[in-house]
Design brief:
This protein is 50% helix and 8% strand. The longest helix has 20 residues. The chain contains 17 helices and six strands.
Amino acid sequence: MDMARIPTVNLNLPKGMRKRKQRSGKTYYYLETGTDKRKEISLGDDYYEAIKKYADAKQTNTENVAVLTLKDALTAYFKSRKYLDLAERTRDDYKACEPKILEFFNDPPAVLETIEASHIQEFMEWRGAESKRRANYEHSVISIAWNYARRKGLTNKPNPCEGVPKFELKARDVYVDDDVYLAVYEMACDPVRDAMDIAYLSGQRPADVFKMDETAIKDGFLNIVQNKTKAKLRLRVEADLKIVIDRILERKRKNPVYSLALICDEKGKRITQDAIAQRFRKIRKKVITKYPKMATVLRNFQFRDLRAKSATDIFEKEDIKRAQALLGHTDPETTEIYVRSVSGQQVSPTLPSTKIRSAIISRAS
């Protein structure tokens, strides 16, 4: 008499569902029909869609046929068009959150239906002990993946991240003064100098700086579509910005490789934001050795601070509207908050009464 074999693998697959890895490396899922010929119905190569098709075939709900974990939800989201349509930098940032999330929630694997708000709170306390900022970011990624899983019908359980507060963090308030800027600039290589010049003169976020191409320069304007907000800017290529771009183009013509990217390495190839960041950190260490009295401010100087320097310098020399336009903010109040966080709000001294003013003047004469 034949006895059914007790499964020891693929325990997240419901009864009658099988998976097979093909020579191509892809895994496909099948539903046994129960006929004598062991006929199977193909459910495709996507696990989550296969579970839904299985549930439809069995006329039941997905939570009744599969043990879906938080890892499953993350995997589903990272394969989704919603994720793939994000900017490359955002995708990389989201994916970088996965290891720590799984370190906490995948040993053993945490089933979606068992995760409560209290578990998210425990994660925040555990992760926050190392980095509150990263804990907040990973909280967001868990929430995004969970909401995606709900929309796809992988779970009906409410998002446990709701009601679990993130850490309150102080806004970054670093202003890079000219001496600090020039100390780094003095020892920087050409690609880093190019990147610093373009970032400061354009006032754009690093991600937008490193995607700039020659093809975006038309009729005397550098056309920019910001990754984060999708705001469109037409930046006049004039004055110092024109000097910098002309200098870059002239040097690029001498390189063995010609790339359309504005920021290139010494061979003429497009250089990434991460590559410049690595060079920037090495240069900063050398500058600290040369100028030990500036060590504290130099350690606080990050490439992204050039956007704040640009906005602050424009605000102090001109007005908030000019700074707002360059940064691409829709609301001037956003620019004011941004600028004041790094340089402080501009205020006037007390206007004294006539008697007190007379006393002050008499002491000065």
